[in-house]
Design goal:
A two-stranded antiparallel sheet has the order 1-2. The protein has about 140 residues and is an all-alpha fold. It has one domain (about 1-110): Non-ribosomal Peptide Synthetase Peptidyl Carrier Protein, Chain A, CATH 1.10.1200.120. It has helices spanning about 1-10, 15-50, 70-75, 80-110, 120-135, and strands at about 60, 80. The radius of gyration is 29 Å and the shape is elongated.
Length: about 140
């Protein structure tokens, strides 16, 4: 029973529970950002670039021409889907930006920790006096 109790104590610690909650919220937040990028941002960027659908941008490594990505994949052609990479990169930048802004806001709201200066010990003061008198 000792190991079971140790495991219960480990799980009951606040930092482990906080970490588990952060992972779940982070996964949900990632899905929200992906939906934002795929559904809103990339279509607007694509329209600004002449109607380009970034999810369909690819390079076929077998040097054949394919009508679209689905046709290349159906032909089992090796492809580099750089459009998907661009979308993932934008996802990452947006997630990093939002986390940065949240942390910046948290630091503003968080109460500063009061720093109490402790007077040096009496023996330290005496040693400083001796040091200063020896310098003269």
């Amino acid at each position: 029973m000792g190991m079971v109790n140790e495991f219960k104590d480990f799980i009951a610690r606040g930092n482990v529970m906080d970490l588990a909650i952060a992972v779940v919220i982070g996964a949900a937040f990632g899905k929200i950002i992906t939906a934002l990028v795929d559904g809103i941002i990339m279509p607007v960027v694509g329209m600004a670039m002449g109607g380009t659908d970034f999810s369909q941008l690819f390079v076929a490594l077998d040097r054949n021409d394919y009508a679209n990505l689905a046709a290349a994949q159906a032909a089992a052609a090796p492809v580099i889907t750089y459009g998907a990479f661009i979308q993932t990169l934008i996802d990452f930048v947006l997630i990093a930006l939002v986390i940065f802004l949240l942390l910046k806001g948290y630091k503003r709201v968080r109460k500063p920790v009061e720093v109490v200066e402790v007077a040096p010990a009496e023996d330290v003061l005496l040693l400083r006096e001796i040091r200063d008198s020896l310098r003269k």
